Amino acid sequence: MATRISSPVVVDGVLDETAWEGATPATGFIQAMPDVGYAASEKTLVKILYDDRNLYVGALLLDSNPDDIMARYLEQDFETHHDDVFAVTLDTYLDRRNCFMFLINPRGAVKDGQTFDNSRSHNLAWEGVIEVETTIHGRGWTVELVIPFTTLRYNPDQQEQDWGINFLRRIRRRNEDAYWAPLDRRSRVHTMAEAGTLTGLSGLPRPRNLTAKPFVLADNADGSLTEASGATSGFDGGVDLKYGVTSRLTLDLTYRTDFSQVEVDQERVNLTRFSLFFPEKRDFFIENAGIFAFGDFSERNYRLGASPRDFTLFHSRRIGLTNGRPVPIVGGGRLTGRVGSFDVGLLHMQTESVSSLPAENFSVARLRRTFGDVLQVGGLIASRDPLGKGADAYNRSFGVDANLRLQDKLIVHSYLAASDYPDREGDNKAGRISAAYRDRLWDVSALYREIGEGFDPGMGFVARRGVRHSYGTVGAHPRPAIPGINEINPYVELDYVTNLDSSLETRTGTAGLGVSFKDGGVLTMTASDRLEVIDEVFQVADQGDVPIGHYTFREASLGYQSDASRALSGEVQISGGGFYHGDRRSVTLSGIWKPNQHFALDLAVERNHIDLPENSFTADVLGARVDLAGSTRSFLSAFFQYNTASEDRVLNLRYNFIHSPLSDVFLVYSERRNGDTQELLERHVAIKATKLLTF
After folding, report:
1. End-to-end Cα separation, the chain, in angstroms
2. pTM
3. With CB atoms 3.0 to 4.6 Å apart as the test, which of 69, 307, 514, 576 could cross-link to 585 if both were Cys?
């Protein structure tokens, strides 16, 4: 029950106003981990107030050992599984599918976002204007959260409102998650179909419809790669606009879009004959990306045999980036949300011409409808048009997909897609049908997909063409009464890949075992038997050739990740065995030292030693990162990487000051050099300032 108040409370992390005393508390939290169904080990009380402008959430999290409360993060979007956490999710349309999410640690760090389709997809790039204060005291810790109604979306025409709501209490030292509306350990706080209900809301204000975020930028760029790409230096400016067309439909417009503050990609060694997939990091494209998702998808709790790293019809990194380097974006717009029973997504962007790359128009249209909580059917069309290159320079791609979910245990996923690209010959279609079942004990999945050799979506990603891929797996998740163990997961899986003439190209059989411990540690073991048919010579890590032939070899791996909540934690992964006509040994070591909330040191080393009859070599990646946090508004990071395969040395320094809600100052320095010749490849210095304006 939410309680209306006539005047705002003082936000100081202390629930001492009379208004809090009169509110009805939500209590009785139930564990999902480690002991499902048992009462939480510590008591939590949550109260909800509201007035004409804000929703107020007050939480008292009692703790019998307050000195053991874990809170080692201050930064926005912190790693929530490593700290004590309080979370609230709000389903403002009471559709039991979508929510706004706010997670807070005892130091006041915030991670917020939106989730959709009952926890199936999320948008963690979303940031809301909120105010948070926390205190750690002798009884535990306290959260006072203020959410302006202008931050949320709801139906302002409805006088009396009920919202879906749930709360999470995480006690990290015990690896304990407890919820107000009880959930199984496989679910999350944003599984809104099982959430509770917030009542008592009435007469809510009509949210403001328009925000603007202008930016100013001064930068300087030099280096051989920078000069070749035609990048310029100087002063620039632009603006992002957000307009609420309706309570459920949002228009985003951008002009002179800039991503100079985005961290550089992580260096990787490619030991395969296929292209590597790099994730999107730019907030403008991450926001509401779930509506545009189409292709092989990943879903928590299921082993599906393929992911967006194998195929996605729309991959936003194809816009404004070429070979990982930025291409200036003139501007564009995005319309996302819900119209009647349909989810709608429209995106249009235009880039400038650089060097030999022409200016281009990128357009995407997505339409999807959900029938109850069971069936989801949709379609996507994407178009890439180089300007001034003639009528035959276009690339079009389109597809339809259908997803079925029964009782949150059985999921069926299918798609049929095609591309139209004058420069490509051969079968231009792709399709998939798969089914996966998961309950508290068993998980079983099967997949069949086919990718034509001429299928080439110009705004998507395809790792492997001209194949028929079959996959199956069976696994179990028993929870034995063994001290210190949460769950074990033995499984087997088989990948079988042929060309379009049904000739075998890849066969991989794998047996694996995963063990999750009650302290948060994870042990993994796998053993694989592989057959690879190579019909074209390819180069491994730019150093060794694998010739045409049939290869049969075996591999094994062993990995352990320790309790990440400790001041010193780490991960080790050892793998090796046969490698085509040679051998491979790989070791990955990483460690994080975080003695307090102000300092973190992250070190990682990956060593790959390849023995081939013609050549033996090592391909290593070294990384070091230092993070300094002065407060929840001031952050400095330094990130250094060295890739011995490409001889690239990369340095990235970034300072971020949040001078007001969703308004930042960034100072960024990045440099890439050849470690052998010391040639300066790229160097970029930028200072950027943004300011959120609400109308």
Report:
1. 31
2. 0.89
3. 576
